[in-house]
Amino acid sequence: MSTSPPADSTNEPEIVVDVTPPPEAPTSAATTDEIAACLAKVSLFVDLPAVYLRRIASLGVEESYSRGTAIFAEGSVGDKLYVILAGSIRISRQVPGMGEEALAILKTGDYFGEMALIDDFPRSADAIAHESCRLLVLTKERVADLLFVDRDLAYDLLWSFVRTLSARSARNQRQDDLPGGEQ
């Protein structure tokens, strides 16, 4: 802590300014190989060879969020895919007159925001840290650059997207076919 010198001798109170930097939060940033090992367990990447997983891991940036912190809001521009390395995320929407409606709780090994890599639509829901979490963040620009350079990886990753979207569509169709399902 340091103090500033008195402005003059007119008995003004001394101003104390704290110049101590805030303590650094401990980081647990994972290595590229550790992140690649995590990606190998994520359904979107599970069929990709290790060399591709390391390339994808090297593109990402690790971010940490405290419980209750918004990652993105419904309607915002989407340009990132998120992979949950630790913790959980709540995907929700605000329902007028009712408040928040949780659509899903995603846990370690899940991912979200993938549609931002293939379309230019705004986010369709909010993403909020349900508990403290660490995320691998992959930007649309960096993934697009990698896919442009490595056509084999692009082919495999795009097929993985197709399988993911097909499975999601089939799951939604089954839910719609249940009694009381939305038609």
Summarize the structure.
It is built from four helices and ten strands. It is of the alpha+beta class. The N terminus is likely disordered.
CATH architecture: Sandwich
The figure for the number of domains is 1
> How are the strands of the largest sheet arranged?
3-10-5-8
What is the CATH T-level topology? Answer: Jelly Rolls
Q: For the terminal residues, how far apart are their CA atoms?
A: 65 Å
In angstroms, what is the radius of gyration?
A: 22 Å
Mean pLDDT: 83
Overall shape: it is: globular
Task: Compile the SSE list and pairings.
Layout: E1 2-3, E2 16-17, H1 32-39, H2 50-59, E3 61-65, E4 70-72, E5 80-86, E6 88-95, E7 99-107, E8 111-112, E9 126-129, E10 133-139, H3 140-149, H4 151-177
Antiparallel strand pairs: 1-2, 3-10, 4-9, 5-8, 5-10, 6-7, 6-9
Helix pairs in contact: 1-2, 3-4
Features:
alpha+beta, Jelly Rolls, four-stranded antiparallel β-sheet, disordered N terminus
Tell me about this structure.
The protein is α+β, with helices and mostly antiparallel strands and 183 residues long. The chain has a single domain, classed as Jelly Rolls, CATH 2.60.120.10. It is built from four helices and ten strands, in the order E-E-H-H-E-E-E-E-E-E-E-E-H-H. Helix 1 (32-39) packs across helix 2. The longest helix has 27 residues, at 151-177.
